[in-house]
Write a structure and sequence with these properties.
Blueprint (H helix, E strand, L loop, with lengths): L1 H14 L2 E2 L2 H4 L4 H4 L3 E5 L1 H10 L2 E7 L6 E2 H12 L6 E6 L1 H8 L3 H18 L7 E5 L4 H13 L2 H8 L4 H15 L8 E7 L3 H13 L8 E6 L21 E2 L4 H9 L9 H7 L7 H9 L3 H12 L5 H31 L4 E2 L3 H8 L1
Parallel strand pairs: 3-5, 3-7, 5-6, 6-10, 7-8
Antiparallel strand pairs: 1-2, 2-8, 4-9
Helix pairs in contact: 6-10, 7-16, 8-10, 9-11, 10-11, 12-16, 14-16
Bound molecules: tryptophan.
Length: about 375
Amino acid sequence: MQGDMDRETRLIEEFGLRSITGQELGIDHYFARRGIIFACRGYEELMEALQSGNFYTLTGIMPSSERIHLGTMAVVEAVKCFSDRTKQTILLVADLESLATREVSLEEARRIAFEFHIPTYLALGIDPEKCVFYFQSENKDIHKIAADASREITLQEFRAVYGLLEPSRIISSLYQIGDILFPQLVRPMIGVIPVGLDQDPHIRLCRDYVRRSKFFQFKQAVGVYIRDVPSLKGEGKMSKSEPHAAIFLPEDDYKELKRKIYKAFSGGANTLEEQRKYGADLEKDVPYKILQFILKDDSELQRIAESYSSGQMISGEIKEYLYQRLVELMQDLKAKIEQYRETVKRKEIRIISSARELAECLA
Ligand code: TRP
């Protein structure tokens, strides 16, 4: 992963982030062990949070299409890394942001969240006993913070973080600050926010606001950054705007899934002979990189890395292997999603709409 590392080191320095290792985190989860969680903003606060256990874990996901892709799955997995230590896990449905930036109605967002997203998070292992959910549009408390933050942040600052300034972005960013801090209306506590690196501008603005806010007593929020799941094209990250280069959960058409994977950008040489001779370049190989996110068994991953980089295994074989693992994952998920859809229907999950309701869960 040297290529990624170089890019990341540059980003880390440029943006004033701090790289972190699984050891420092003291978390025994494959995301931590493999460096998928690779950097943070707010190292001191993160260490304090992990040592004291006095923190909440929160992230938000936009309900803009029915199925999530592997990149969103990675965010959910990262949230799970903290679930044993945290006082509370909070997953929010960013429906106002989807309305403002993706033209998804609130009704549609609600349907997608209840029928697809929330059941999928539970199927991926989010414990409904330990997690609370909310919709941005229903949580009146985020608006109080958003309004206060709007006074403390200048247009210049928005411009500096986003480049492009649009009302929809400004309002979404203010809501996001409201999201990140609202649990502290119950009591001040560090917030740990696992996200992709693209969310760092929001974390920066939020931290600047925390330092300035006069009316609220907030502790800091920490951005915990996870590596991007690569696009199947080999350039950039997986995204739902490029469905041919993304893997969705679940994928209904396995033939299509297979086709996509077989076309994925390979780190193997061009001919079979060269593949045997030189082995594959694991830094460039998309199927291998995706396996890092989904294959939980370290020794199995190691076995594949050795065999593929030495030319024993060839690119067609790793693609077939990835395909098989994904089919297993999807079959397992499909059954669980069905089951958790019933859990959601029976209202056996906690949906809150204010800090007061969150206080009841925290008690
Ligand atoms: N902006 C995030 C995205 O584009 C979603 C989001 C909304 C979020 N509120 C949040 C993420 C709070 C983390 C914390 O995906």
